[in-house]
Amino acid sequence: MLVHPEFSPIAFAIGPVAVRWYGLMYLLAFLFAWGLGRWRISHGKTSLTHRDLDDLLFYSVLGVVIGGRLGYVFFYKASYYLAHPLEIFEVWQGGMSFHGGLLGVLFVMAVFARSRGKRFLEIGDFVAPLVPLGLAAGRMGNFINGELWGRATTVSWGMIFPQAGDNIPRHPSQLYEFGAEGLLLFLLVWGFASKSRPIGQISAVFLMGYGVARFLVEYTREPDNFLGLLAAGFTMGQWLSIPMVVIGAIMFYLSRRSPHAVV
Question: What is the secondary structure of 100-162 as a DSSP string?
Fold first, then answer.
């Protein structure tokens, strides 16, 4: 049986300033996106420029942070934050939502596309392959922090998380998400984007791929104790992922009629 090593959440300190692993994972995520984006631009995979990429990533950081926080507030603990509104700004206490961050980035993409005279889905097809490795970095941050642990299990690789306050072996669901939502999704979307595709198809594959991966891994992840299981025995993460799969499937079907293809 494995035991989580209880890493210190602080990677290193410079004087009174402590740099946390989770913050480094966010930085790594955007570095991945920047590097992969520059590669796609340099290899003629988009009409965007390097300056477009820099501007898009700058505003996407705001979209991820603001959208991720508001998504957590409204999707997961709306009643609590309604009673304690000032705590919405206490982001250092934790509480971010991928689906909220996604909505924040979609808003940024829409504004960016309009300001640059680009199609929204063209921006989406450029951004989609850049995201999964960043998701992998975020899930590794979850694992290092010993948070968002899995459900109880009897599998041989079950891991005891002292942070859970019990001695129960659990699925290391953060690592499952690291593999499924991160590495496998990256291979899927990056490989799919390596060839010319109708506008919107790359975005559609990302939505469907993430939605399916998150939905399945949620069966091994411990539900939030303040929510538990919701209708049909699904978690909040599963309910938020279902629309991604549906929208992605519709987009993929409709995109087949589009004569416009990315390079």
Answer: HHHHHHHHHHHHHHHHHT--HHHHHHHHGGGSHHHHHHHHHHHHHHT-S-B-B--STT-EE-G
Domain boundary assignment for the chain: 17-255
Residues 149, 175: Cα–Cα separation, whole Å: 10
Q: Could you tell me if 29 and 61 are in contact, meaning their C-beta atoms sit under 8 angstroms apart?
A: no
Torsion from C-alpha of 223, 227, 231, 233, nearest 10 degrees? 20
pLDDT at 260: 56
| Annotated binding-site positions | 139
* Residue among 103, 112, 109 at smallest CA distance from 68: 103
For the chain, where are the E strands, in sequence order? 2-3, 10-14, 17-20, 159-160, 169-170
Count the alpha carbons within 13 Å of 87 in the hemisphere toward its beta carbon. 14
Fill in the DSSP letter of residue 232: G
Looking only at the bridges linking them, the beta strands covering 2-3 and 159-160 are parallel
pTM of the model: 0.92
Instruction: Output the CA–CA distances (angstroms, integers) from residue 99 to 2, 52, 96, in the order listed.
Output: 31, 24, 9
- Position 23 confidence tier, pLDDT thresholds 50, 70, 90: confident
Cα–Cα distance, 49 to 64 (Å, whole number): 22
3-state secondary structure of 261: strand
Which of 47-61, 89-103, 127-141 is least confident? 89-103
